[in-house]
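Lab notebook, design round three. We kept the backbone fixed and only want residue identities now. Task for the bench partner: fill in a sequence for the structure below.
Input structure tokens:
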């Protein structure tokens, strides 16, 4: 059985669509849900103490000031724990900056 160029293109498109759907779903989870699943504590309306202590520790160890560079702080947090989506990392950094 041989796969022609049309079938190969269709297969690549389907795989791309599946990857897109998985990544899109992963990014669209609410911050409270993501933080609760990672740290096992309710995070409404702000992240719980476990999440805040973890974030402060990670940022301190990396030498990052979340107030001076919030975008880099979000990147550091997401690198430290890949389960964090962008929204959850932003909520964490915003909470730290308000404290």
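Proposed sequence:
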């Amino acid at each position: 059985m041989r796969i022609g160029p049309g079938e190969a293109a269709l297969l690549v498109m389907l795989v791309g669509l599946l990857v897109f759907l998985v990544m899109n779903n992963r990014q669209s989870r609410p911050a409270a849900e993501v933080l609760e699943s990672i740290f096992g504590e309710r995070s409404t309306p702000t992240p719980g103490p476990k999440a805040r202590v973890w974030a402060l520790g990670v940022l301190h160890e990396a030498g990052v000031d979340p107030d001076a560079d919030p975008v880099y702080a979000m990147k550091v947090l997401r690198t430290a724990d890949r389960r964090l989506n962008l929204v959850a990392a932003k909520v964490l950094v915003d909470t730290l900056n308000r404290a």
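Keep this in mind before ordering anything: The chain is about 70% helix and 0% strand.
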